[in-house]
Amino acid sequence: MRHGSRTALVTGGARGIGLEIGRQLADRGLRVLVGARRPEAAEEACRAIGPAAVPLSLDVTSAGSVTEAVREARELTGGIDVLVNNAGVSLDGDLRPPHVDEDILHTTLDTNFTGAWRVAQAVVPGMVEAGYGRVVNVTSSYGSLALMDSGRHPAYRISKTALNALTRMLAAELAGTGVLVNAADPGWTRSGMGGPSAPRGPREGADTPVWLATLPDGDGTTGGLFADRRPLPW
Ligand SMILES: NC(=O)c1ccc[n+]([C@@H]2O[C@H](COP(=O)([O-])OP(=O)(O)OC[C@H]3O[C@@H](n4cnc5c(N)ncnc54)[C@H](OP(=O)(O)O)[C@@H]3O)[C@@H](O)[C@H]2O)c1
């Protein structure tokens, strides 16, 4: 992979695991578009990452924002080679099914699932045209049906289950195009979402997403769900 010539878009890239993914991609020689809802947060993150980072206003829940961000990204860099769908929210605290707060359900799905779909829809055609792409959906073991043994965080879990399904379908549709699509579980990581007690730091959390974002040419890994670079059951 010619890292020097590649551009990555990281959604929710201004803090937490997303900021660390951007930092590690920049360390590997990629240009990094730091997607963030608040322009000043994107700019601050870019200063922290260094000259390879470029701020991009991006709210994944707004179709207009996604279209505009991808247009701007093309103008700035020529195209997006790597998409890391990292932006996410976890809002449902102690809610358990069948009790549901519909606003929480809709916002969670709109951000974690539809948001990733929206950005993929805008970015993937350019990858197919270029014959190269890496899409990494940052998911969670909470979304694994195989591991779904409680009703904790129901909206969050279902949003990640849906994201996992999108990963499989996109990978199947894009087989043979040069675009590899995988899902990465960062593990319980210290961040705004993970809180201060999580056992791993952002560096570890970012490792599997970055590995999948930089799969070398000739590597056929696609349609998989990974944690710590190892397959996780769907
Ligand atoms: N931390 C964990 O233990 C853990 C475990 C498994 C999976 N994950 C996943 O890892 C990813 C990153 O989480 P994190 O732990 O780094 O959480 P975090 O610190 O809360 O960061 C979440 C990021 O998503 C952004 N975001 C939220 N809504 C957005 C929207 N509508 N448009 C654009 N960006 C938006 C936030 O931006 P603002 O600053 O604008 O809010 C922030 O940059 C998420 O997908 C999460 O589900 C985390």
Automatic annotation (TrEMBL):
Keyword NADP belongs to the record: yes
Domain of life (superkingdom): Bacteria
Region of interest (Disordered), residue spans: 187-206
InterPro entries given in the database record: NAD(P)-bd_dom_sf, SDR_fam
UniProt keyword list: NADP, Oxidoreductase
Family: Belongs to the short-chain dehydrogenases/reductases (SDR) family.
Signal sequence extent: none
Pfam families, per the entry: adh_short
PANTHER family, per the entry: CARBONYL REDUCTASE 1-RELATED, CHAIN DEHYDROGENASE FAMILY PROTEIN, PUTATIVE (AFU_ORTHOLOGUE AFUA_3G15350)-RELATED
Transmembrane segments: none
GO molecular function annotation: oxidoreductase activity
Key word Oxidoreductase present: yes
Species of provenance: Streptomyces paradoxus
Protein name listed in UniProt: NAD(P)-dependent dehydrogenase (Short-subunit alcohol dehydrogenase family)
